[in-house]
Write a structure and sequence with these properties.
globular; 0% strand; 568 residues
Length: 568
C-alpha cells in the first residue's frame, strides 16, 4: 500500500541513492529482493526500531526514585529523561556518521532510515516516560475514575463482559481494547489497565505517525514534515483520538495519490490497494470518528479532482469500490449506528473554548483552563499574532508551489473543510444551544496548517533540485537521490552533511517539544491538565491503602475534587 509523492521517484533495487550515488556498486552489494534490502523488509526494520525506541525511556523511567508531586523532583525527572533522550539520539546520529565514513557510504541510507525511525520513537517515548513519571506510586490512570477516564473505564468493563456500553455512538475499538487488555493483564481491572494503555498509547504515537508519512515521504522528510507537526497534539490522557487524526491525514493523502494513478495500474494491485486503504480507514473510524466528519468534504473534493477521468475511470471506480467495501466490512455496523443515533445525540456541554473567538484555533486550552488571563492572547496585527500570520502565509505559499500536487491540495482541502464545518456548527450554537464538539476542529486546523508550513521547505528543496538537475550540476540519478520514497532525500550540495545536520536539529527540536508536552502532565492543583495526574495520587487504591505519594498520606474514594471549582 506504499505510495510516493507526486514527482518523486520510487527507489528500486540497484538505484544509487546513498553518498556513493553515481558510483558502481561494489560486487558484494546484495542483489534485488534479498533479505532486508527489499522495500517491505526495510520498512519492517524501520517499524521495529521505531517501536523498540519508543519503549526505552518509559522502561527506564520506572526505576526513578522521586516524589512526582514535588516540583523540584519533576524538574529533575524531566532533565533525566532529556539526558537519556539526547544520548540515545546522539548514538543513532553517530551511527549515521559512521555509515557515511565506512565502506564508501554503502550503508548510509540504511543508517539514515533507522536513525529517523529511532528518533521518532524516542520522541513519543519521552512523552510516555513523562506519564510514567507523573504516575509513579499510583496504579490509577490519569484522573482516576473522574470525567472521561471514569466513563471509559466503566464502558470498557461493560463491553468486555458482553454488555452494551453507556454510549452507542462512542467509538467501540478503544473500549474493546481496554476491556480485553484488562481481562488479560489485570484480572479485569479496567481502571488499572487504562494507566498502561495511556502510557503505551503515547509511546506508539511517534512510530505510527512516522510510518504513516513514510507512505509519502523519505525518512528524514517524514520525520521533519510529518512527525514534528504531529507533536503539537500528542496526548497521554486519551492518546487514541489525537493518534487517529495524525494518521488519518497521511492515509487520506496517500489514498488520493493512489487514486490518481489507478488509470495506469493493473487490476489486481489497484483492488488490493483500495481494500487496504478501506480497511485501515475502517480501523481508524472505529477508534475515533470525529475527524472523518471534519475532513469529509475536503477529501471528497480532492478525490473528484484527481479521479482518473481520462486515463481509466473504470479502474478509479473499482479502486474506490474496493475501498468502500473493505471499510464497510470493518466499520459498517458502527457507521450505521452513527448515521442513526448520531442524529439524535446532542452535545449541550459548553466548555471554555465555546466562549472565545471561533476564528482562533492556534492553541487548545482544554475544558479545564485554570488561570489564563486574556484569551485568545492579544496579537500584534489586528489582534492576530505572528504565529498566525506565518501560518497563513505558508498555507498560501504551499498552495502556490504545490498546486498540482495531491499531497498539498488534499491537506489544504481538509483544512478548509474543517474551517467551514467549524463555523457552520458554531453559527447555529445559539439557535440549538448545542456545541457538537466543534472546538475539536482546533486540532485538525492546527495540524494541517503546520504540515503545510513544513511542506513549503519540502517544495522549495524539490524546486532547487529540479533546477540543479536541469543545469547539469546534479548526477543523472538526481531524482532518486533527492526525493526517493525509500531514500533519505536532500536537494542541496553536501547531501550527507544535510542529512546529519537535519537529524541533529530534529533531535533537539523533538526533545524540547517532548519535554514541554511531558511537563504539562506533571501533577499540580492548578486546574489545567496537571490536575489529571494529581487526582490519581489522591484516590484510595482497591486494597484500601493510599497511593505512595498521596499528599499528607491522605486519600479518598473519589480523590481530590477541587478541580470542579475550575470549570464552574
Amino acid at each position: 500500500m506504499t505510495v510516493s509523492t507526486e514527482g518523486a521517484a520510487d527507489v528500486r533495487p540497484g538505484t544509487p541513492s546513498g553518498p556513493a550515488a553515481g558510483r558502481t556498486p561494489a560486487p558484494t552489494d546484495p542483489g534485488p529482493g534479498r533479505g532486508l534490502r527489499t522495500r517491505g523488509g526495510l520498512l519492517l526494520l524501520e517499524a521495529a526500531v521505531a517501536f523498540g525506541a519508543a519503549l526505552v525511556l518509559p522502561v527506564l523511567a520506572r526505576s526513578f526514585r522521586l516524589d512526582p508531586l514535588n516540583r523540584i523532583a519533576q524538574v529533575s525527572g524531566l532533565a533525566a529523561l532529556q539526558l537519556r533522550f539526547a544520548l540515545l539520539g546522539l548514538v543513532l546520529i553517530a551511527a549515521v556518521v559512521l555509515a557515511m565514513r565506512l565502506r564508501r557510504g554503502r550503508h548510509f541510507d540504511l543508517a539514515t532510515r533507522l536513525a529517523s525511525a529511532g528518533i521518532a520513537g524516542l520522541a513519543s517515548g519521552f512523552v510516555a516516560a513523562g506519564a510514567v513519571l507523573a504516575l509513579l506510586g499510583t496504579p490509577w490512570p490519569m484522573f482516576g475514575l473522574n470525567g472521561d477516564s471514569g466513563r471509559i473505564v466503566e464502558w470498557a468493563h461493560a463491553v468486555a463482559n458482553g454488555r452494551p456500553s453507556g454510549s452507542a455512538v462512542y467509538p467501540p475499538l478503544p473500549l474493546y481494547t481496554l476491556g480485553y487488555y484488562a481481562e488479560w493483564f489485570h484480572g479485569g481491572n479496567a481502571a488499572y489497565a487504562f494507566k498502561d494503555l495511556q502510557i503505551l498509547g503515547a509511546a506508539a504515537f511517534g512510530p505510527l505517525v512516522y510510518l504513516a508519512w513514510r507512505m509519502l515521504l523519505s525518512p528524514v522528510r517524514a520525520l521533519a514534515f510529518g512527525v514534528v507537526p504531529a507533536f503539537a497534539l500528542i496526548d497521554s490522557y486519551k492518546p487514541y483520538s489525537q493518534t487517529v487524526l495524525v494518521l488519518l491525514v497521511p492515509v487520506l493523502v496517500a489514498m488520493v495519490v493512489a487514486l490518481r494513478r489507478t488509470g495506469t495500474e493493473g487490476w489486481r494491485p489497484l483492488l488490493l490497494k483500495g481494500a487496504g486503504f478501506g480497511a485501515v480507514l475502517g480501523v481508524l473510524f472505529l477508534t475515533y470518528s470525529g475527524w472523518f466528519l471534519w475532513s469529509a468534504a475536503g477529501v471528497f473534493f480532492a478525490a473528484l479532482l484527481y479521479f482518473p477521468w481520462r486515463t481509466g475511470p473504470a479502474k478509479g471506480a473499482a479502486f474506490m469500490g474496493a475501498a468502500l467495501g473493505a471499510f464497510l466490512v470493518v466499520a459498517g455496523r458502527y457507521l450505521k449506528v452513527m448515521l442513526v443515533e448520531g442524529q439524535t445525540t446532542k452535545d449541550y456541554n459548553f466548555r471554555f473554548d465555546n466562549f472565545t473567538d471561533p476564528a482562533y484555533y492556534l492553541m487548545w486550552r482544554t475544558d479545564m483552563p485554570g488561570k489564563v488571563g486574556d484569551w485568545p492572547p492579544p496579537g500584534e496585527f489586528g489582534g492576530v499574532g505572528l504565529f498566525a500570520l506565518v501560518t497563513f502565509v505558508c498555507l498560501g505559499a504551499a498552495i502556490w508551489l504545490g498546486l498540482r500536487k495531491p499531497l498539498v491540495v488534499t491537506i489544504a482541502a481538509m483544512f478548509i473543510s474543517a474551517w467551514v464545518m467549524r463555523m457552520y456548527i458554531a453559527s447555529h450554537m445559539y439557535e440549538t444551544q448545542t456545541v457538537q464538539l466543534y472546538t475539536r476542529t482546533n486540532n485538525q486546523l492546527l495540524y494541517c496548517g503546520l504540515i503545510l508550513c513544513a511542506l513549503v521547505a519540502h517544495l522549495v528543496s524539490l524546486r532547487l533540485a529540479e533546477r540543479r538537475t536541469a543545469s547539469g550540476s546534479a548526477p543523472a540519478s538526481a531524482s532518486a537521490v533527492l526525493e526517493p520514497a525509500g531514500g533519505t532525500g536532500a536537494g542541496f550540495p553536501g547531501r550527507e552533511g544535510a542529512v546529519i545536520g537535519a537529524l541533529c536539529a530534529l533531535l533537539l527540536l523533538l526533545g524540547t517539544v517532548s519535554s514541554s508536552m511531558s511537563d504539562r502532565y506533571m501533577p499540580a492543583q492548578d486546574g489545567t491538565y496537571r490536575i489529571l495526574p494529581w487526582v490519581s495520587h489522591t484516590i484510595r487504591m482497591q486494597d484500601g491503602k493510599c497511593p505512595k505519594f498521596a499528599p499528607k498520606g491522605e486519600c479518598s474514594k473519589d480523590g481530590d475534587q477541587g478541580w470542579l471549582s475550575y470549570i464552574r
